[in-house]
Every structure is written in structure tokens, then in C-alpha cells.
Amino acid sequence: MFRFANPDYLYALLLIPAFIGLYFVAMHIKRRRISEFGNTELLKQLMPGVSKSRGWIKSIVFFVAFAFMIFGLARPQFGSKLTEAKRKGIEIIIALDVSNSMLAQDIQPNRLERAKQAISRLVDQLSNDRVGLIVFAGDAYVQLPVTNDYTSAKMFLTSISPGMVSKQGTAIGSAINLAVNSFSPQSETSKVIIIISDGENHEDDPIVAAQKAFSEKGIVVHAIGIGSPKGAPIPMGARNSDFLRDKDDNIVVTRLDEETLSKVAISGGGKYLRASNTQIGLLPLFEEINRMERTELKDKVFSEYDDQFQYLFGIALLLLIIEFFVLERKNKLIKRLNLFGESN
Prior knowledge:
alpha/beta, 6-stranded mixed beta sheet, 3-stranded antiparallel beta sheet, 10 helices
């Protein structure tokens, strides 16, 4: 693998055309001033030591040396090998409800956006742990496989919206089953599933799924209820100017189903927390997760990039030395060699 450690320095290569332009301007001014003294051909005979080609050669050597210096400053590197990074951590999969009911605004700005903000802050707290992301409504999908690439996790998080799962509903059981199968198969570290949902209109039996995950796989299932038991309407339309209505044109009110989510957490050996406008519950839950046993995680990564800049600096230095010893006037000692194709 090849890369530049400091690629911003490459912009300095744009100076070379400017240097060439300045050189032409300087040469033009020089010729014009010489012509002011008299006939150009006559002046050439009075200055037999002057060489046109040497000036060009010095300039070209300097520009090439400058280019090598810039490439050296950019620090070209080659990845030498694939190494195995070892760290102690756990695996966490967050299953986020993206059904239309998550657009309700009893949690500001709405249930879904508030949950995404809390997940983002949770990711900022991670260091050696792996995190994965599942979205679900009537179906469940892996949005991000378990990874320690927290930048990608936050990037995928921003793209989550209710429209990404066409089938409506709240299939918490499917999300738990998918999460169980999405952990690293050979990893023996502690594993945690965090369900974030309003719990309403569940399509399957999430309690059985959580119990099975905990009893058979040792995976702890926590649940965070987001919303209020009182409920709120579901905004619809581009400007949220209307609300979701049933077939009788009555406004649909979505309510938090704490009973179901609490039973899911109990069956999964975890805890249930209810979100509010001031606290979603992920960070307090993470404190609980932090007390879990951590085992060694292994990740294969490219590392030990070898710097190559020293060779480029060496070539640049050699060219500058050559440029220094190439005089603009003809050298009597090497004149007979005619290295620069000059006529006597």
C-alpha cells in the first residue's frame, strides 16, 4: 500500500510553472538590456565565455531538485505488512427502531433524531470496543457490521431515516435475532445488544428472542424506551404540517410500550431505561456495560508504513550540488569535452 503522509505539501508543485514563467521574464529583460548596449552579434564576440545552454541546464536541474524536495516533504510511504492489533474490549450492537412512530416529537426534536444524537455521543466514548448498527421497523437490516472504525459508524448513523425500511411495524424480535448472528463468530468477548425503540406494534415475540440470546449465547440484551406513555401524533409531510391518520381520518397517537421493552430487558439479562428530553440513557447504560468482562480482540490492520522521503531528499541534494557546480560561463578546463553541445 502506498500513501503520502503529508499530501498537502504536493500543492507546492504548482510553484514550478510560476518559477518557469519568472525565468522566461528574467531572460527577456536580460536580452533587452543587452541589446541596448549595441549590436547583439557584436556583443557575443566580446563575451566568448557566455553560454546559453548552461543557464537552461541550471534552471532545469533546479526545478527537478525542487520537485524531489516537495515529494520528500509529502513523505511517500509504503505499507510494509499486515499486522494483528490486539486490544481488550467488548462487542456492542445497537438496534435502532426507524418506524414512522419514531418521528413523534414527545422527545425533542423527535424520537429518532434524539436517539441518533445519543448513539453518536456513545460512539465518542468507545476506545477498544467494537460497535455495530442494525435498523428495524417491520423488517431488520444490518446498517453497519461490528467494527472499531468509529468514524464510519458515525457516518452511517447520519444517513438513517424511516424511509430506509419500507415495511412498517416494530419487529424487535427480528432485530435481536439478526444481531445475534451479526457478532464476530469466533470472538469470545462479552456481547451486548441495545434496543432503542418505542416498543409499539411489535410484529413478533421479542421476549422469546431476548431470552434465547441470553440463555443460549450469553448475549445481554438491554432496552431503552424512547417516547412517553401519554403518546404523541406522528408528523407527516415535508414540513410536518399534518399528522398520520387512520382509515377513519383520525389522528394516530403513538405511545411508549414500556411493558414490552421492560420484559425484553429482563428476559435478556439486561436493564430497561426510559428516555427523556434530558437523558436518553445510553451513557448510564454504558457505565453498566463497562463493568462487563473484557477479553482480547484481534484486528488485522496495515501498519508499519516505511518512509521513503530520505531517498528523494538525497536525489534533490545531489541535483542541487550539480546545479551549483554548473557555471553559466564556459569552463576552460572541460571546454574540450563539449559536455553541453557548445560550439567553440
